[in-house]
Amino acid sequence: METLELKQQADTKSKARSISGSEAVLEAFLEEGVDTIFGYPGGAIMPIYDALYDYNEKLKHILVRHEQGAIHAAQGYARASGDVGVVFATSGPGATNLVTGLADAMIDSTPVVCITGQVFAHLLGTDAFQETDVINITTPVTKWNFQVTDATEIPSVLAKAFYIARSGRPGPVLIDITKNAQLQQFNYEGYKKCEHIRSYRPKPIVRKEYIAEAAKLINAAEKPFVIFGQGIILGNAEKEFKNFIEKSGIPAAWTIMGMSALPTDHPLGVGMLGMHGNYGPNVLTNECDVLIAVGMRFDDRVTGRLDKYAKQAKVVHLDIDPAEIDKNVKATVPVWGDCKETLPLLTELIEQKVYPSWIQRFKEFQQKEEDKVIKDELNPSTDILTMGEVIKELNALTKGDAIIVTDVGQHQMVTCRYAKFNHSRSNITSGGLGTMGFALPAAIGAAYGDPKRKTVAVIGDGGFQMTLQELGTIMQFKPDVKILILNNQFLGMVRQWQQLFHEKRYSFVDITSPDFVQVAKGFGIPGKSITKREDLVSSLKEMLDHKGSFLLEVMVGKENNVFPMVPQGRGVAEIVLSREEV
Amino acid sequence: MLKQEYTITVYTENQIGLLNRIAIIFSRRKINVESLNTSPSEVDSVHRFTIVINETEDVVRKLCRQIEKQVEVLKAYYNTNEEIVWQELALYKVPTDIIAAEVKVERLLREHGAKAVVIRKDYTVFEVAGHREETDNLIKVLEPFGLIEFVRSARVAIIKDSDGFHEKLKEFEYREPGENAAENEYLNENEKVFSM
Fold it and tell me: Which of A143, A179, A223, A340 does the annotation list as catalytic?
């Protein structure tokens, strides 16, 4: 025993070498399988960038044009690939520019690790140049954050950071490293991945009695309804979910974040939930007898008025985060656990069934929506182009195989309503936070996260102007991003609300735009702008076939509205199909 | 559901910044913290927060889940006043000459269980440990006699029905906690309902 211990000691000693804190950060990245970093240098993170100079061949660094772009790109990377997105930013303004992206990643459970530089430890609290209290600013919008002031902490803190970001319900982590710790040489004894933190349990042991109770409810149901969210994608449980609904025969609707977890043309897929979701899934939420919620959190955009939400139904709620269970909707049977584990257990206990007359109900509502909304949106009778028909033609060309990244607003709702997806991790959008300006940088990240698939960013004229400086990133690093701007010359969603609920008092929604094609040209990106239907298909084809990035602007109807709509403050069953019904 | 006083007991790692993480869970929801105390616990290296708020049980349960979600939090419990033994410590500074002159004051102090901590020529400091009403009462009593200063500590509380944290911590330290680990608290065996 003694000799073995001595030998082990000698081994660690021989492995130990002196490296800087900065090198330790990059070594940790390599150990965690990071290949791409999105970042922007500055004073307080210079030692890390100096070390990066020598890691150029192992780690790709994408120099963005604004730190917000870095974190949205990291989010896009994470959402497309399933790996952790990684960000570098400097102290002070560099770090504060990350806040929007952190909040977005927090509410949409996206695994991201941000490294921010910080002033020397002896200057903390002195109002030094570019010093800001990043840890306290980011506390509400991170799953975990930590300030490192000593280089010896770096390997273990980074191991914790990656473990926390990707395990359980994923989320953003920020590590703030003072400049002295980045410079400090220390005795590096290798990297050990974190697998356990005693105060943190990413997921529980599944309790089978709940599975049994849930199965009993489901087996006895006459009108069961499944609603699913991003939990399935985050848990890599797409196959388990498909098996579950196919055996149970239960119709299933997705939240905006759950979209693409199930192919959109699956016979049991009945559409999207929520404020601009489909007619049937919303109305029939208030008719089903058992509501089975999988990996979703009953956001107010999904539930409408809570006291009018599924009151008649027994609720089975599968979620990995116990804080979500009973938070908004009381669960009859809570199934706390990772759906990758709970779904197969549940599938085993449920009976193979079909619900033809219940599914017929969804079809009836689908037909009504088809007649009153979809027909005109996809095949308009006027010359004016609609957003829906652009997406319809895009579907025909991508065949549902592309990654579609959307910004926020009308174009987002229309895209999510009509886009077709065959593969999971295809729909990347800012769901919970509703961050305008998300799409362009997130699409850059998605293009690196899954370069084998085509990435199309669908963006409105307003949102595009929030982060269009990232065209510079595309110019320099040449990720293949197709940019499709649906330009209605308005901040369309706010305009729609002002029209419907504020007596058409259009207050600052009339937004002018530059010549987007000229702007793109300035960044060396070819582009085209169209207004006519006869140019639509050929232009979309030109964009998709172009080798490299391309910008296509489509001028669409100025005052079109997105319907159906559950007006704010009303129940899901009070969803309306037209302006007249509001 | 009615609002009432709840005492939240949180076992945590000793980590800079955790106080802020816990405090903002309340401030974000615009909930006033009546009292907050941090101290060591029965377990070496584990810290214990004692937080008092006035809320409905539904809100308190949700708050506890949000607190437990924090990476460095081991466990959060909430209890009504019936379920705990609690004390607050109050200090009173009074002019010594008045106490010396007025026999009545001396009697009052004794009635309220006050103990002299410091006696100087110019002033005397008394302490009382007890519930809020008790320490409040003495303020009213002493005010007419020239109460110079008053301060009260946060509440500290012991949960009557608790075996402490030693055994629980052992479970937490395992990578795969046993069947009887902490999540069993989510199950009310009798009613077969999920509760915390």
Answer: A179
Q: What is the nearest CA distance from B72 to chain A, expressed in angstroms? A: 5
How many Å lie between the alpha carbon of B165 and the closest alpha carbon of chain A? 13
Name the class of domain A17-188: alpha beta
Amino acid at A49: Y
User: Which of B17, B66, B71 is the closest to A199 by Cβ?
Assistant: B71
> What does the block give as tokens for A565?
């709509």
Query: Domain A387-559 maps to which CATH number in 3.40.50.970, 3.40.50.1820, 3.60.10.10, 3.40.1350.10?
Result: 3.40.50.970
CATH level 2 (architecture), domain A208-361: 3-Layer(aba) Sandwich (3.40)
Best mutation target among B19, B183, B196 (most A Cβ atoms within 10 Å) is B183
Strands A172-178 and A185-188: unpaired
Does B68 contact A at CB distance below 8 Å?
yes
Predicted confidence at residue A238, as pLDDT, reads 98
pLDDT at A13 over 70: no
Q: Is A580 an annotated catalytic residue?
A: no
DSSP assignment of A497-564:
HHHHHSTT---S-B-----HHHHHHHTT--EEEE--GGGHHHHHHHHHHSSS-EEEEEE--TT----S
* Domains of chain B: residue spans and CATH: 4-84+157-194 (3.30.70.260), 87-152 (3.30.70.1150)
- Give tens-digit pLDDT for B90-148: 999 999 998 888 778 888 888 999 999 999 999 999 999 999 999 999 999 999 989 99
Digit-coded pLDDT (tens) for A535-575: 999 999 999 999 999 999 999 999 999 999 999 999 999 99
User: Could you tell me which chain B residue has the CA closest to the CA of A326?
Assistant: B62
